[in-house]
Design goal:
It is a single chain. The chain has about 375 residues and is of the alpha+beta class. The protein has three domains: about 5-120, Orthogonal Bundle (Butyryl-Coa Dehydrogenase, subunit A, domain 1); about 120-230, Butyryl-CoA Dehydrogenase, subunit A, domain 2, CATH 2.40.110.10; about 230-375, Butyryl-CoA Dehydrogenase, subunit A, domain 3 (Up-down Bundle), CATH 1.20.140. The chain contains 13 helices and nine strands. A four-stranded antiparallel beta sheet has the order 2-3-7-6, with helices on one face. The chain has a three-stranded mixed beta sheet with strand order 1-4-5. The protein has a two-stranded antiparallel ribbon with strand order 8-9. A hairpin with a 2-residue loop joins strand 2 and strand 3. Helix 5 packs antiparallel against helix 7, helix 7 runs antiparallel to helix 8 and helix 7 packs antiparallel against helix 11. The structure holds flavin-adenine dinucleotide (FAD).
Length: about 375
């Protein structure tokens, strides 16, 4: 089991209390409205939680990977969709900006992002660029001191409303190679950028969009990292992101276990609560055991990251196991609920819809398996 220190346990309690009063009671409403609750950006900024894991020099509130896992896990337990929107803002967009951009650009934007006054998005995916990260082809043509963008990004979380979008663009080379992929910070209101919301199966409390760039001029000083290699420079941020994405799966999985236990204790069939049937008790026990195993992996990877030890393969293992555990737990919780779980007003049907993306987002699990195999062939041992 995970041993949290006193400060971490306090943070966990505080986020859990906030999530139980400010998020969970509204989770169904936000899911049905397919709207992200915008007031949570400044609310979490005010509490200092968006700044967890960031240096105070850029407006962060300190703490590290373990604290960030605690935050994401507890938020996801209340609403995976809400956690996803905040995760992309914090863990992908702001983290890439802070870790890779030149100090003046990072300092000009990060404090407002960490206060939740600006909302961030990370735009990599395209119609022809998914699990293969070399396929991005959105062109950025140099024109004096600007880049002019033409092309489309798809499936971008926070895309419909983000103020600050980190866009992966091709400034050179051809699709199929990482060389030539740069990252530009694009303001949401830049002329030439149009956005279209996209509807989806799950994670409906987050908002997803298509971004179309037409002759969209962005100042060259908005480059994150070097021209032609900014995306490669962001790859470590994506590795980190896998650990926090895995924490999101843990939160969703804990919600599934909680719902399953609550239900089997009160639902009566065959003369007593379902929990009196051994098959049901064993199902719940297996759920708890798998969740505990996934938690050890996720927090183990976070601790490795905090100690500045190599953690890439651990991150892949944690992401693979936690995401598939999330799907397993949501399915078992739904199964134990019978027809009641299948109904619109049941939280477990939402968990069942929300879980699947975690298996192919943040690097498809097949890609994680490839990376784990290669690392193992090179000597990695768990
Ligand atoms: C809710 C949601 C939120 C998202 N948010 C963002 C965001 O904020 N920013 C962003 O850039 N993108 C986002 N995405 C898109 C995400 O990046 C892509 O889903 C992801 O990159 C995978 O690409 P794809 O979906 O096109 O799948 P594809 O690349 O088409 O792959 C489809 C399937 O093929 C199989 N496969 C792929 N590669 C391999 C392989 N090497 N070996 C074996 N099998 C393989 C896997 O089963 C995989 O699931 C989001 C998507 C969703 C649904």
């Amino acid at each position: 089991m995970i041993e949290l220190n006193e400060t971490q346990a306090e943070l966990q309690g505080a986020v859990a209390r906030f999530a139980a009063t400010e998020i969970e009671p509204h989770a169904r409403k936000w899911d049905e409205a397919e709207e992200f609750p915008q007031h949570l950006f400044p609310a979490l900024g005010e509490l200092g939680w968006l700044g967890i894991g960031f240096d105070p020099a850029v407006g962060g509130s300190g703490g590290g990977p373990v604290e960030r896992c605690i935050l994401v896990e507890e938020l996801a337990r209340a609403s995976a969709g809400v956690a996803l929107g905040l995760y992309v803002h914090m863990v992908l967009a702001t983290n890439a900006l802070v870790k890779v951009a030149d100090t003046p650009l990072a300092v000009s934007l990060a404090p407002a992002l960490l206060r939740g006054e600006l909302r961030g998005a990370w735009a990599y995916a395209e119609p022809d660029a998914g699990a293969d990260v070399t396929r991005a082809s959105l062109r950025a043509r140099r024109d004096g001191d600007t880049f002019v963008l033409d092309g489309t990004k798809l499936y971008i979380t926070n895309g419909p409303f983000a103020d600050v979008i980190l866009v992966v663009v091709r400034t050179g080379g051809d699709p199929g190679t990482l060389k030539g992929l740069s990252v530009l910070v694009v303001d949401g209101d830049t002329p030439g950028l149009s956005r279209r919301p996209m509807r989806k199966l799950g994670m409906r409390a987050s908002e997803l969009g298509e971004l179309v760039f037409t002759e969209c001029a962005v100042p060259a000083e908005r480059l994150v990292g070097e021209e032609g290699s900014g995306f490669r420079q962001c790859l470590p941020v994506l590795s980190e992101g896998r650990v926090f994405g895995a924490a999101l799966a843990l939160g969703l999985g804990r919600a599934a276990v909680d719902e399953a236990v609550r239900h089997v204790m009160v639902r009566e069939q065959f003369g007593g609560p379902l929990a009196e049937l051994q098959a049901v008790r064993f199902t719940v026990a297996d759920m708890v055991a798998r969740l505990a195993a996934a938690r050890s992996l996720v927090y183990g990877a976070a601790e490795a990251m905090a100690a500045a030890r190599p953690f890439d393969t651990q991150a892949s293992v944690a992401k693979l196991v936690a995401s598939e555990t999330g799907t397993y737990l949501a399915e078992r919780a739904l199964h134990l609920h019978g027809a009641a779980g299948f109904m619109d007003d049941s939280p477990v049907q939402r968990l069942y819809r929300d879980c699947k993306i975690l298996e192919y987002g943040e690097g498809a699990n097949e890609v994680q398996r490839e990376m784990i195999f290669k690392a193992t062939a090179a000597g990695f041992r768990p």
